[in-house]
Amino acid sequence: MTGWRLILSALVIIVLILVLWFIMAPPRWWLNLTKKVPTTPEMGEKLIRKYRCRSCHRIGGVGAIQAPDLSGITKKAGDPAHVTLRLWLRNPKSIKPGTPMPNFHLSDYEIEAIIKYLEYLDKKEVGP
After folding, report:
1. What is the Cα–Cα distance from 117 to 123, expressed in whole angstroms?
2. What is the pLDDT of residues 74-84, one digit of tens each?
3. What is the rounded distance in angstroms from the CA atom of residue 122 to the CA atom of residue 10?
4. Handedness of CA 10, 12, 16, 22 (dihedral sign)
5. I need a surface site. Which of 30, 37, 53, 92 has the fewest CB within 10 A?
6. Residues near 39 by Cβ (< 8 Å), separated by ≥ 6?
7. Which CATH code of 1.20.1050.10, 3.40.190.10, 1.10.760.10, 3.90.1150.10 fits the domain covering 35-126?
């Protein structure tokens, strides 16, 4: 009986470690599997609300100014593919250690939707 208890205890510990890992630092494949959303500007707008981005950032002329204003962020010269923005949204602290921006563990789909929304706002500012 003692051998089974030891094996069961080891399995419980392994499962707990895996659960903690998935909560604290979920792998990208897991995020993409569990947080798949349409990559549309409308979904990007919903995600901006869900993650309360405007509580720190001004986006489309609305929001706080505790963090950078994101107006025109998708028009930045030298990064037309938005590589830096994508990397930032994946993990801000990997780009700038010590940044107060939290890692929201966004899926690639969520990142694309947010970028589509920011692109939509930036095109809207220019007008027809």
Report:
1. 10
2. 988 678 889 99
3. 53
4. positive
5. 30
6. 109, 112, 113, 116
7. 1.10.760.10
